[in-house]
Amino acid sequence: MVEFKDLTVTYNPGMENERVALKNVSLTVLEGQFVTIVGPNGAGKSTLLKVILGEVQPTSGLYMIDGKTMNYMKPHKLAEFIGRVYQDPNTGIFPALTIAENLIIASKKGNRPFKFSSVKEEAISLLRDLGLGLEDRLKTKAGELSGGQKQSLAMVMAILSKPRLLLLDEHTASLDPDSASRVMELTERINREYDITIIMITHNMDIANSYGERLMRLMEGEVVNDGMRNIVPRVTSAV
Ligand SMILES: Nc1ncnc2c1ncn2[C@@H]1O[C@H](COP(=O)(O)OP(=O)(O)OP(=O)(O)O)[C@@H](O)[C@H]1O
């Protein structure tokens, strides 16, 4: 699905503050995979996600989706099938709006016809299905939710537009351990039950060692480790 071939990103090339963020990275992420990326500060993790989103153009090498080299003149095309959730729980949602309004806005994103009644039904059934306990609180302002609930809502919003790929950049970093576990269980269900490919960055080694079928380690812009793992099935509690 997503493929990098010998991809290098150099910020400020030729200048005093030149910085090579990714060095000849080659990788292939298959449809449906859940890939966890770890690495120290400055390793190039966020740059990798930015390339995927079309926010940063490689200096050399190829970035391909479904075997086609990406055209950076049309980055909006990427937005149509990529969802994202970041670290700050307030950036993935509109805190001043109700849960219902947030879901409606999210539904309008994406490449499909919008019909209010069907979207409302779909959003409610998604919330119910995921067991988040938010379906009865549709008139609550999103800003009043806990950090974990905000991130869960942000993830539901991200998948409402039916992305094929979900990018998660430290999406549990600001949560307490219990909330982080619940959000990770939701992440896993989104991958398995909704068949959405996930690329997740984390600094939390407990999470990295427990979630995702493939663990990749970046160091100074290079992939130094990339392996499939057999994860021991967890007993999943209600989210
Ligand atoms: N816009 C930019 N201009 C110049 N250098 C940059 C820019 N963005 C990132 N860098 C540099 O590129 C390198 C990789 O940065 P990146 O943000 O991808 O790392 P990271 O692994 O996500 O780090 P962190 O875990 O701290 O978020 C770093 O040395 C960083 O300083």
CATH H-level name... which superfamily? P-loop containing nucleotide triphosphate hydrolases
Uncertain spans: none
Rg measurement, Å: 18 Å
Q: Determine the N-to-C terminus distance.
A: 30 Å
Helix and strand run:
EEEHEEHEHHHEHEHEE
What general form does the structure show? Answer: globular
**What is the correct CATH architecture?**
3-Layer(aba) Sandwich
Strand order of the largest sheet: 6-7-8-3-9-10
- Strand fraction: 25-35%
CATH topology: Rossmann fold
Can you tell me the CATH class? Alpha Beta
Number of helices: 7
Bound molecules: adenosine-5'-triphosphate
Protein name: ABC-type uncharacterized transport system, ATPase component
Organism: Mesotoga prima MesG1.Ag.4.2
Keywords: ATP-binding, Nucleotide-binding
InterPro entries: AAA+_ATPase, ABC_transporter-like_ATP-bd, ABC_transpr_LolD-like, P-loop_NTPase
Question: What labels would you give this structure?
Answer:
Rossmann fold; single chain; 239 residues; alpha/beta; 4-stranded antiparallel sheet; binds adenosine-5'-triphosphate; 6-stranded mixed sheet; 26% strand
Verbal overview:
It is a single chain. The protein contains seven helices and ten strands. With 239 residues, the protein is of the alpha/beta class. The protein has a single domain, classed as Rossmann fold. The chain has a six-stranded mixed β-sheet with strand order 6-7-8-3-9-10, sandwiched between helices. Strand 1 and strand 2 form a beta hairpin. It is globular and about 55 Å long. The two termini are 30 Å apart. The mean pLDDT is 86. The chain binds adenosine-5'-triphosphate. Adenosine-5'-triphosphate binds next to strand 2 and helix 1.
